[in-house]
What does this fold into?
Amino acid sequence: MKIRIDGTRAEVVHAVNKIRRILPIGSVSPVRPLPHRPYTWRVYLDTAPKRDGGGWIT
It folds into this structure.
């Protein structure tokens, strides 16, 4: 599943840390500023676990 997070840099970092506690994160895109919205940043998270044959880590 892909999740998009928009907000200030502090909001984006806080949201990513909260989501990491709940879901397994496969990858995180670089945090990039939005060109026409000052002080707004965007990041994409991929929450699908890697298919290595293993199960969920508990």
About this structure: DSSP finds one helix and four strands in the chain. The first strand starts at residue 2 and ends at 7.
